[in-house]
Amino acid sequence: MPSISLCMIVKNEEEVLANCLESVKDICDEIIIVDTGSTDNTKEVARKFTDKIYDFTWIDDFSAARNYSFSLATKEYILWLDADDVILPEERKKFKKLKKTLNPKVDAVSMIYVTATDANGNPTFYYRRNRLVKRSKGFKWIGAVHEYLAVSGNILEADISIHHLKKNKKPDPDSIGRNLRIYENRIKNGEEFSPRDLFYYANELKDHKQYKKAIIYYQEFLDGKKGWVEDNIRACIYMADCYSYLGDKDNELLSLFKTFAYDEPRAEACCRIGDIFQGRKNFKIAAFWYELAVKMKNKKTGGFNHASYTTWYPHLALCVSYWQLGNVEESIKHHEITKQYIPNDPKVIYNEKFFQNYLKNKNKGK
């Protein structure tokens, strides 16, 4: 059974760090904490789990800090987590099984990263990240911000989820605007951005409501034609978001159509297009796009996944569209499918009562 070093970088994480370490302490053989300048009780929390706590002077470079943490590992494999990540009990069982059965020829293991859930704990937004890597391969982190772990070789896709939780965490004042500031300082210093930098800089601009500027950088990223296909698609969708915030529905629609230039239609883009036509009360065209979303729901990608668009959302929208088109049978059919996914949602409960009353009144009239 391979040994595992957990390597983390932290700063002002006293509210969440214990939950993270408690969830992984019986999986890892070594816990390494690299602190980048905490002013709270983060180190005191960490000491309850490990004595391997190190300081790293922050230089506006996440990869530098993460690579330093990796350099301190002594075990066969390295696992990395953020302080507000947890491995839930069922996932912990899967992880322990993986540890017992892991083929030593595996160089890296990717796991599902769940960053948002619904009221019932079901994932609503998730994607894959390389989480467990063989130390002897010397894999490095790349990128000052929105860094990624560059891996190669024999990569295993594990059915293990890591959840990102921020419920009890107060925002760190130093982190507000930090990523955008790092990017803009790099621009001032004359640094040339990689395609990935352009994409994530545009994301930061969007998140800071600088929509017009974000659109410029998304377009520059796409014009370079060197981006990963999933990032190209996501850039188009995020451009659509920007145009939506600016009230420009025509360009929002065109941005969503641009996603089709890179791969098969994604359910999310189809639903978003359907929403625009439904908003224009063109329910026939809206239904076409929602039906296409249903057909594409099983399309597997390595990119970001909004689970609603591949589960209940298109069916709820079809329920509305077909009702407006006078196709009651199809409307009820899609309501029933929606109910299988989110039975306790207020919209579903409302529609259930609506259809019950409709059918009751219809039967009375016979």
From TrEMBL:
Range of residues in the leader sequence: none
A molecular function (GO) term: transferase activity
Name of the protein this chain belongs to: Glycosyltransferase family 2 protein
Keywords: Transferase
UniProt organism field: Ureibacillus terrenus
Keyword Transferase attributed: yes
Glycosyltransferase 2-like domain ranges (all copies): 5-115
InterPro entries: Glyco_trans_2-like, Nucleotide-diphossugar_trans, TPR-like_helical_dom_sf
Protein origin, superkingdom: Bacteria
